[in-house]
Every structure is written in C-alpha cells, then in structure tokens.
Recover the amino acids of this structure.
C-alpha cells in the first residue's frame, strides 16, 4: 500500500527524465513514430518562436482527435491537437499534491519544472504507481480524500471519469485497465 511517507516524497525523485519535445508544426504521424521508437506515450510540444514547451500530445489525443475524427496523421500537425496550456508542477512538490492536481484537472501527465521554471522531466500517474514499493497497490487510497476513504458506506467514484464502484478494489482495477493501461498505439485493441 502507498504510505504517507511515499505520498510526501518529492516529485523530482520519481520524475521521468527521458521526455521528448517536438516543434508544434511536426506531423502527427512523425510524433507517433517518435513515441513508438522511444517507448513513450506522450510528447511535449514546443513553440515555433521560442522552442519553449507550450502543450502536450498523448496517444489518446492522437486516437480521439485524429483517428476517431478521420483526419489524416500526415496532414495534421501537433499544434492542431495539443492540449494547451501545458500544466506543470514544481519538482519540489509532493507526490500527493501531484495526484491531487492530476485529479483536479482530469489529466494523467504533468511537466515537471525546477525552481527556475525549466522543464526537467514529466510525471505520469503510471510513473507514480510504478514507484510504489508494493505490488498490492490500492489506487483508491491514493485518489480519494481521507474523509471519503474512511467512510464505509460511501460510493467509490473514479477521479478521472466519475464512474461509480461498489468498492475500492473494483475502482483500482478500473483505473489500471482504463486510465493507466496500454493504448492503441501500443497494440492494445480491447476498446476498438
């Protein structure tokens, strides 16, 4: 189980340092190839003028905003599908604050910045879960506010899609399967 000490550790200790920033005029098809070759599920998008990251494109963005809309990945550029502005967190913040920010914004990835405002990495819900010292992770304990988690008769609600579950174990499986699991670009065809 994720303990209080794990939740209080700093983001910098588990941030993923191997991130990629591509120019905003990069074709979606090229970005997908980079994601596949680097085994990453998102790329940061850099401004054409300043080269500073201004957005992010994820596998889900490609699937929902290009594939599902019948747009050609060789015609659409990252600027057209990126999520912007780029939401970030200080590397000095706690893992708990990171999870709360992700939940509040309904996102699963954040850019990590140092004290000077420079991006030093990214953090994902998967990178948080992957750094849990136990194989028996109950994501509901991470996701739910303490007062909600303590009440026995409460409805358990997914912090991402707001689906209701009968217990924390069921919600944890749902989060693993739907919100953290592999995507179509990784060959997962379960939802298609």
């Amino acid at each position: 189980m994720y303990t209080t000490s794990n939740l209080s550790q700093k983001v910098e200790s588990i941030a993923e340092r191997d991130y990629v920033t591509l120019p905003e005029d990069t074709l979606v098809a090229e970005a997908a190839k980079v994601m596949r070759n680097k085994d990453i599920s998102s790329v940061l998008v850099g401004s054409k003028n300043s080269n500073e990251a201004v957005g992010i494109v994820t596998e889900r963005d490609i699937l929902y905003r290009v594939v599902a809309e019948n747009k050609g990945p060789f015609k659409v550029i990252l600027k057209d599908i990126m999520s912007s502005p780029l939401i970030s967190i200080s590397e000095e913040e706690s893992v708990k604050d990171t999870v709360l920010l992700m939940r509040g914004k309904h996102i699963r990835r954040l850019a990590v910045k140092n004290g000077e405002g420079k991006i030093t990495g990214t953090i994902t819900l998967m990178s948080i879960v992957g750094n849990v010292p136990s194989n028996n992770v109950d994501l509901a304990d991470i996701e739910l506010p303490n007062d909600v988690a303590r009440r026995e008769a409460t409805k358990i609600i997914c912090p991402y899609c707001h689906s209701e579950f009968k217990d924390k174990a069921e919600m944890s499986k749902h989060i693993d399967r739907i919100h953290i699991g592999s995507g179509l670009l990784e060959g997962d065809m379960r939802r298609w």
Summary: The radius of gyration is 17 Å. The CA atoms of residues 50 and 183 lie 31 Å apart. Confidence is low (pLDDT under 50) at residues 134-141, 143-153, 183-192. The chain has two domains: 4-131, 139-180.
